[in-house]
Design brief:
- By secondary structure, the protein is α+β, with helices and mostly antiparallel strands.
- The chain has helices spanning about 5-10, 15-40, 55-65, 85-95, 105, 115-125, 125-140, 280-310, 330-355, 365-390, 400-410, 415-430, 430-450, and strands at about 140-145, 165, 185-190, 195-200, 205-215, 225-230, 240-245, 255-260, 265, 320, 320-325.
- The N and C termini lie far apart (about 55 Å).
Length: about 450
């Protein structure tokens, strides 16, 4: 396994992590990937898809626990609750998990639970950890993260408008917060607003939502108007209206829910960290999560490349007198895919190292680079694999169509590419003053050399 770790990262990967990488790879290749087909067949039909889950998942979880492959994602330099690996080490493991639909859940490393567990581990109080973090760490329950709203441009998080109104012995009216006909001491009210793309909310094991909304709409600092709240999924007033599909895939039993909140009451003690700290929590949550998605996407790209290589080297498939692998265009696709995957991996591992050495906040540029580059790379590689299969590539007879649909969402999830590109460009443009001054100084120096030299004869032998 050490041979597959990029040289620039080799000295940062412990012997224990290298041994675990071998175990992860074997578990994914020999247990999870064969189980993926069983998972699909065990899914129920119709509405029952949301009231049960494939039992093969529990079998895989037991095997993963016996192998010590559990909660691998919590980095050791920031948390004590995880398996004791760095972001870099887990990133290498996540790549293997990205080759299987079941591997991440089998090891309790599936989104959105990973991000939610990080939030609770980093920002939750002792009572919140005891009630919600511990069951999540044990794999007893699952969770969802609710932020996006259907009638808002949610790529700008300040637009989030679900209201969280604190009620004691009086009404409190803040901006767009609606009036209430009753007084609820010690509770927040979430009034008639909707959330969608609430990933994970379809699972019958989902017991807790982390919800982002506004507690202080009039705060002049638009980044301190929002808060995050723990909301049990069975709280009165919550209505799951429907499950959204991704290019026709419903991702059961996980699901992406469209949810309505109507006078939902939760104890004030369910507030995470404190009022107005929503953006602070969100940035701490999304940074490592973007790295997890990126490394899993690299695994998906590797899997697509494997399927493409298998296809074009099938001796029974010849066109114009040659096997597919002998055609120049397919050779180029394979070679380019190899280069692009390896280059993208370095971008992600660089971001993981930066997080390990500082924090997610200190690695914003590197995280954004990975978040933008990797899904586009993976989509390109998967598309080549699809093309190599022809019509078969777009149907259910290969995993490629589902993989493409899944990776395509990552150009939108956790902030669309365009937002990250815009921020990166702004930061690059901050260098304009220094760059312009340096280039001007170089030009002036060249002019002085010309003016100070009387004999400008050309070089000669």
């Amino acid at each position: 396994m050490a041979a597959s770790i990029p040289v620039i990262a080799l000295d940062k990967v412990s012997e224990r992590a290298r041994r675990t990488l071998d175990i992860v790879q074997k578990f994914v290749e020999e247990e999870c990937i064969p189980a993926d087909a069983v998972f699909h067949e065990q899914l129920s039909e119709g509405e029952k898809r949301w009231s049960s889950y494939p039992p093969i998942v529990d079998d895989l979880k037991l095997k993963a626990k016996r192998l010590g492959l559990w909660n691998l994602f919590l980095p050791k330099n920031h948390f004590t609750e995880g398996a004791g690996f760095s972001n870099l080490e887990y990133g290498l493991m996540a790549e293997h998990m990205g080759k299987s639909r079941t591997a991440s859940e089998a090891t309790n490393c599936a989104a959105p639970d990973t991000g939610n567990m990080e939030v609770l581990a980093k920002y939750g109080n002792n009572a919140q950890k005891a009630q919600w973090l511990n069951p999540l760490l044990n794999g007893d329950i699952r969770s969802a993260f609710l932020m996006t709203e259907p009638d808002k441009a949610s790529s700008d998080g300040t637009n989030i408008s679900l209201t969280m109104k604190k009620e004691r012995n009086e009404y409190i009216l803040n901006g767009s917060v609606r009036n209430s006909n009753s007084i609820m001491s010690g509770f927040y009210m979430l009034n008639y607003e909707q959330k969608w793309w609430s990933s994970g909310a379809g699972d019958p094991r989902c017991k807790i939502y982390i919800v982002m909304g506004k507690t202080d709409p009039s705060n002049p600092d638009t980044y301190k108007q929002q808060s995050m709240m723990l909301v049990p999924s069975n709280t009165k007033g919550i209505t799951v209206n429907r499950m959204l599909s991704v290019y026709g895939y419903d991702d059961a039993p996980h699901g992406h829910a469209h949810i309505t909140f109507k006078n939902v009451r939760v104890p004030a003690s369910n507030m995470i960290l404190g009022p107005g700290r929503g953006f602070e929590i969100m940035q701490g949550r999304l940074g490592p999560g973007r790295i997890h998605h990126a490394m899993r996407s690299i695994g998906a790209a590797e899997k697509a490349l494997e399927w493409m290589i298998d296809r074009v080297n099938d001796p029974n498939r010849k066109t114009f007198g040659k096997t597919l692998s002998e055609h120049g265009v397919l050779q180029q696709w394979i070679a380019k895919s190899r280069i692009e995957i390896d280059a993208a991996r370095l971008i992600v591992l660089n971001a993981a190292i930066k997080i390990d050495e500082s924090s997610a906040k200190g690695a914003l540029k590197e995280i954004a680079e990975a978040k933008i580059l990797v899904p586009q790379m993976a989509l390109t590689v998967i598309d080549r694999a699809v093309q190599s299969f022809g019509a078969m590539g777009v149907c259910q007879d290969t995993p490629l169509a589902y993989m493409w649909a899944n990776v395509r969402t990552l150009r939108i999830a956790d902030g669309p590419d365009e937002v990250h590109l815009q921020q990166m460009a702004r930061n690059e443009n901050k260098r304009a003053g220094e760059i312009r001054a340096r280039l001007a100084a170089q030009k002036t120096a060249s002019e002085k050399l010309f003016s100070g030299s009387r004999n400008l004869n050309k070089a000669h032998l």
